[in-house]
Write a structure and sequence with these properties.
This protein is α/β, with parallel strands linked by helices. Helix content is 33%, strand content 23%. It has helices at 20-28, 43-48, 72-92, 111-118, 132-140, 160-168, 182-192, 233-252, 273-281, 289-292, 311-323, 341-352, 366-374, 394-406, 424-432, and strands at residues 5-9, 31-36, 56-61, 97-101, 124-127, 151-155, 172-176, 199-202, 210-213, 226-230, 257-262, 284-288, 302-306, 327-332, 357-361, 375-376, 382-386, 410-414, 441-446, 454-459, 472-476, 482-485, 488-490. The strands form five sheets. Strands 3-2-4-1-5 form a five-stranded parallel beta sheet, sandwiched between helices. Strands 6-7-10-8-9 form a five-stranded mixed beta sheet, with helices on both faces. The protein has a five-stranded parallel beta sheet with strand order 13-12-14-11-15, sandwiched between helices. Helix 2 links the parallel strand 2 (31-36) and strand 3 (56-61). Helix 6 packs across helix 7 and helix 11 crosses helix 12 (341-352). The chain is elongated and about 105 Å long. Pathway: Cofactor biosynthesis; adenosylcobalamin biosynthesis. Residues 4-211, 258-463 form the Tetrapyrrole methylase domain. GO terms for molecular function: precorrin-2 C20-methyltransferase activity.
Length: 496
């Protein structure tokens, strides 16, 4: 079985711009091959040096580079044939060979000459890399092309007249292979009327990177590893207008809205993409301090944290911001429509802010998160009830608990207890025992998705009120709920 030939682009110079695939191949290679001049130094090898260890190294030394010779192309053809034969010996022996190439292997890269001599005999894979053209544009902070512009990549070795004609006939250009061709390239840019637009980038992405107006560069200082860039004309023409438009929008934006966002039970990976997008677009975040603390900080965004007992005031504050043109995210834990801020915002908006747009972005509820930890205790009909008697009387809580218990549904109990509400859990347990068997499974989920997560299953008769606080959610099983193993509860979808 033969080895595989890999042509691996290692990028323009900065090792951190190598792809993950390139790093993996270099680290695991049996044979590393690279091109160099007679001085023996290789830019490609220097980029990957930190990943080299016990690999066999094949140095492929060009017989000629820029010097004159009677048969330049013939000398190179013979060199590539001999280099391909050297690598074929490794491949025939079953060793994988990684040929590293600065930039991209198929973008003016020497690897291509080995590929066309070996690809019909051995399995090959080409790993693309960041090109010097992309790195140069990044160094300049200028787009290469925009909208339907055409980018032309030109070798500086073209005759000056042809180079000038192509430069005059394109929207944007990158001129490669400068060095000794620089004087001709600059003359062609002048002839084409593009010299004033042209930029010079040397050793892009490295610590020796240099950028300048191409017209101001000393020809004697130009190395081979440099690029001439004539960037997007559309970008240059539209930048002042775009900046003015942006400033006008910032100064006079009037189309605000309130988005009520569910943050989920706690873990970042339970935040939905829609919720992430709403947070990213927000100018202001409004919410209970515990929940606003879960929103990643952004210097562009203002955070307005408040106490948990001012829901209507918080809603009105958010709606006032939106009426003034702000994009506001009102955040709630879990799902905002489950004992959370959606109801307060919609109610206040309906009464006093009919002109303000309000959206609700759902989230994973605490009941769903706790249920998932033990299986499917909410697999059939179920009810959600809050034990808090701050916004409704305890008589109402009792009637609803009794009705649901008599209907034989599983129950997700929110807000079971707090520092000021210490007796409700015991009262609820005793009421439910009038309708449920003492062995009914109860899921006690505390701080689910948080650093102090605890999920236990106990019998209804053994539910300890002292172990329940505001960060706890209880799931009371129905008569059909099953507890087949420790930590597993489900309620079948069939009933009776």
């Amino acid at each position: 079985m033969t080895g595989t030939l890999y042509g691996v682009g290692v990028g323009p110079g900065d090792p951190s711009l190598m792809t993950v695939r390139a790093v993996d191949l270099v680290r695991g290679a049996e044979v590393i091959a690279y091109h160099c001049a007679r001085h023996g130094r290789s830019n490609a090898r220097a980029i990957v040096a930190q990943y080299l260890g016990s690999q066999v190294e094949e140095q492929l030394t060009y017989p000629v580079t820029t010097e004159s010779t009677d048969d330049y192309q013939g000398a190179l053809d013979a060199f590539y044939a001999e280099a391909a034969a050297r690598l074929a010996a490794h491949l025939d022996a079953g060793r994988d060979v990684v040929v590293i190439a600065e930039g991209d292997p198929f973008f003016y890269g020497s690897y291509m000459h080995l590929h066309k001599r070996l690809a019909d005999r051995f399995p090959t894979e080409v790993v693309p890399g960041v090109t010097s053209v992309s790195a140069a544009a990044a160094a300049l902070g200028r787009p290469l092309v925009e909208r339907d512009e055409v980018l032309t990549v030109l070798p500086g070795t073209l005759p000056p007249d042809e180079l000038a004609a192509r430069l005059a006939d394109t929207d944007a250009a990158a001129v490669m292979k400068l060095g000794r061709t620089f004087t001709n390239v600059r003359a062609a840019l002048a002839t084409s009327g593009r010299l004033d637009e042209a930029h010079y980038v040397e050793r892009a992405s490295t610590e020796n990177q240099r950028t300048d107006a191409l017209a101001d560069v000393d020809p004697t200082s130009v190395p081979y590893f440099s690029v001439g860039i004539v960037p997007s004309r559309v970008h240059a023409d539209t930048t002042p207008t775009a900046r003015a438009e942006t400033a006008a929008v910032i100064a006079g934006r009037s189309a605000g809205e309130v988005v009520v966002v569910g943050l989920g039970p706690g873990a970042r990976d339970r935040l939905t993409p829609e919720a992430s997008a709403a947070l990213a677009a927000a100018d202001d975040v409004v919410g209970y301090a515990t929940y606003t603390a879960r929103v990643p900080p952004n210097p562009r965004r203002r955070v307005h944290a408040s106490d948990n007992k001012v829901e209507s005031e918080r809603a009105a504050f958010a709606l006032d911001l939106a009426r003034a043109g702000h994009r506001v995210a009102v955040v709630s834990s879990g799902d905002p429509g489950v004992f959370a801020m959606a109801s307060a915002v919609v109610e206040v908006a309906a009464a006093d802010y009919p002109d303000v747009a309000v959206r609700v972005v759902p989230g994973v509820s605490a009941a769903q998160a706790v249920a998932a930890r033990v299986g499917a205790p909410l697999g059939h009909d179920y009810a959600m009830i809050s034990l808090s008697d701050r916004l409704k009387s305890w008589d109402v809580v009792e009637r609803r608990l009794a009705a649901v218990a008599d209907a034989d549904m599983a129950i997700a109990i929110y807000n079971p207890g707090s520092r000021s509400r210490t007796w409700q859990v015991e009262a609820a347990r005793d009421l439910l025992l009038k309708y449920r068997d003492p062995s009914t499974p109860v899921v006690v989920g505390r701080d689910v998705d948080g650093p102090e997560e605890s999920v236990r299953v106990v019998r209804l008769a053994d539910l300890d009120p002292a172990a329940v606080d505001m960060r706890t959610l209880l799931i009371i099983g129905a008569s059909t709920s099953r507890w087949p193993a420790p930590g597993t509860v489900y309620t079948p979808r069939r009933y009776g």
